[in-house]
Amino acid sequence: ISRFRIDGAVRGIIPAEPLATRGTAARRRVAPTLKVLLRDGSALGGIVVPATSDPPAASPVLRLTRTARVTDTIARVPMRHSVGVLKRGNDALVFDQPFDDGAIVVLAPQADREYVIDNPSPPTNTDETFRVTALDSRGDRLWNRAYPYEPTPVPVHVTDSVVTATAARLRVTAGELAAVLHLPSYARTATAALASADGTLWLRRETGGLVVEWTSLSPDGEPVGSVALPRDVELVAAAGPVLWGVQRTEAGSVLVRYRVKP
Questions:
Q1: Residues 188, 120: contact at Cβ < 8 Å?
Q2: Partner of 247 at 20 to 30 A CA spacing, among 13, 140, 153, 213?
């Protein structure tokens, strides 16, 4: 991990302390990855678990000192249907599931907190909720709330195209892949999230149309409102009523700015 001064000068390189991973036949040692710096100089990070035929059930969020020493585990984030494993004899092909049901983690260092959004794809279309948990940088729970929503069906032609494209990318048959691919009947409602400096949380909500809905939650978890944005816009920053995003076009990427009005 390299450290820099605010003027860009290098202050030094910190060797990351290796960690032993579990759940594999041969234990390996991996180094923590830096995610975000906190105001006191410490950091939050995680570990990248090596590819294995036994995917981990959860991914840890770690607290690191200024010397990159791990001092605490802040949270363990579910990795539900995040990784697929196709076994062929003694070999295993490990791949990212296209319909990932793992929890979304959003770090808000200026607000001294992080959010965990747990919203797996629902099995039915009735009485469904997704859950948001707010934690401080020590891992203490600030609040935990459930929000109701109406699930959106995943069209059959979408799942068929995903199977075909994934099979071609992995160079396997669709029949082999179908046994291990997670193909939900209903889509998860939150697919991305962004936190502003004051702790306001923005959630990208699927609508099944040409636009997506970004729902705003206050730092206390209260719903504030929502805005509809084009599906090809990815929000990258938020400050008060102003949102910045990147829009993908045929000509390239365009930086866009929105001002949210009541």
A1: yes
A2: 153
CB count within 10 Å of CB 225 equals: 11
Q: What is the distance, to the nearest Å, from the Cα of residue 247 to the centroid of all Cα atoms in its chain? A: 20
Q: What is the pLDDT of residue 110?
A: 79
How is residue 256 written in tokens?
Answer: 């866009």
Query: Assign residue 201 a region: left if phi > 0, alpha if psi is -120 to 50, beta otherwise?
Result: beta
Distance CA(55)–CA(119), nearest Å, equals 20
Q: What is the pTM of this model?
A: 0.76
Tell me the C-alpha to C-alpha distance, in Å, between residue 101 and each of 76, 97, 127, 188. 15, 9, 19, 7
| Residue 27 CB burial class (10 angstroms; 0-12, 13-18, ≥19) | exposed
- Asked if residue 79 has pLDDT above 90, the reply is no
DSSP 53: S
Per the DSSP assignment, residues forming a β-bridge with 143 are 134
* Contact predicate 256/249, CB 8 Å: no
Mean pLDDT confidence for 8-32? 45
What's the rounded Cα separation, in Å, for the pair 116 and 102? 10
CB 62, CB 74: distance < 8 Å: yes
Residues 177 and 198: their CA atoms lie apart, in Å, by 44
